[in-house]
């Protein structure tokens, strides 16, 4: 563990690890999506991290299904007229280069400066399918993000927000504050988020969380209310899709987890569950 590449030391390592999973999915003949840039974005470091965390790669199905569900919700919102996608903590996501997108669509990515710089270097000679803009910003900078949201609100009429793999690192108070900030904009219409139940959060903290602690990536958000958590802050859950349920439908679910199906409704905080939720701003 004293070697330079012995563990996950920075949030960029996590981004590269997620790119590794997208690269592995893209190699499959039955891939649920194909990301031709994932392997390059993951780089040597992404594959090193995957090797270090080899036991945790058994959960590859969950990261792949999460991406699949986000893709599905994004496509639906675009069909419904979204004219700007705001991708918070975009990491090494390459959706503007791999999805079928309108050329006039505005796609704005926000992340730490070092991730933005690395991504732009890797993709400098690639052509996105829509209008891409990247903003280097720490989302804990409240004034900075409010200024960004206000500027974007003036540029579009139907904004869809994407936050894949972000909220779990925020405290409930931080998530509530972000939700309020997003709801202030008159043109922010939908928000796609991923969630874990309270017991699933504890499981993550005890397993994967320990491995990511050096990257200052502590898992904090698994609200007992589930998607209803967002209601007091201006957002209503329109659709909730469980990852295990989706994986089973796509014949990607590990057999040892199938006993957890079907998903209970509502999902109690004591039930191990992860999912992706489509939120709509209250009118």
Describe the structure.
There is one protein chain. The protein has a seven-stranded mixed sheet, with helices on both faces. It is globular. It has helices at residues 11-27, 38-52, 60-79, 95-98, 113-122, 142-153, 172-184, 198-206, 208-212, 243-249, and strands at residues 84-88, 106-111, 131-136, 159-163, 188-196, 235-242, 274-281. Helices cover 40% and strands 17% of the residues. It has one domain (59-281): 3-Layer(aba) Sandwich (Rossmann fold). With 283 residues, it is α/β, with parallel strands linked by helices. Mean pLDDT is 92; it is low at 1-5. It contains ten helices and seven strands. Helix 3 (60-79) crosses helix 10 (243-249).
Outline the secondary-structure elements.
Elements: H1 11-27, H2 38-52, H3 60-79, E1 84-88, H4 95-98, E2 106-111, H5 113-122, E3 131-136, H6 142-153, E4 159-163, H7 172-184, E5 188-196, H8 198-206, H9 208-212, E6 235-242, H10 243-249, E7 274-281
Helix pairs in contact: 1-2, 1-3, 3-10
């Amino acid at each position: 563990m004293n070697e330079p590449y012995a563990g996950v030391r920075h949030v960029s390592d996590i981004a590269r690890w997620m790119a590794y999973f997208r690269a592995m999915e893209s190699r499959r003949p039955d891939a649920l999506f194909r990301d031709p840039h994932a392997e390059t974005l993951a780089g040597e470091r992404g594959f090193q991290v995957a090797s270090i965390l080899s036991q945790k790669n058994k959960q590859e199905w969950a990261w792949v299904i999460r991406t699949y569900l986000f893709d599905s919700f994004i496509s639906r919102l675009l069909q419904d007229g979204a004219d700007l996608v705001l991708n918070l903590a975009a990491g090494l996501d390459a959706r503007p280069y791999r999805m079928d997108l309108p050329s006039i669509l505005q796609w704005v990515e926000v992340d730490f400066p070092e991730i933005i710089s690395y991504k732009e270097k890797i993709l400098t000679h690639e052509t996105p399918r829509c209008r891409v803009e990247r903003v280097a910003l720490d989302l804990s900078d409240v004034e900075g993000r409010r200024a960004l949201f206000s500027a974007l609100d003036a540029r579009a009429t139907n904004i869809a927000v994407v936050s894949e793999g972000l909220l779990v690192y925020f405290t409930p108070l931080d998530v509530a504050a972000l939700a309020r900030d997003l709801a202030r904009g008159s043109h922010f219409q939908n928000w796609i988020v991923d969630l874990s139940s309270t017991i699933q959060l504890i499981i993550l903290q005890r397993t994967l969380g320990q491995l990511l602690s050096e990257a200052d990536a502590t898992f904090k958000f698994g609200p007992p209310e589930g998607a209803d958590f967002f209601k007091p802050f201006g957002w209503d859950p329109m659709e909730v899709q469980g990852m295990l349920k989706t994986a089973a439908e796509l014949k990607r679910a590990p057999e040892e987890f199938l006993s957890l199906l079907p998903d209970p409704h509502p999902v109690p905080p004591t039930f191990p569950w992860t999912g992706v939720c489509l939120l709509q701003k209250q009118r």
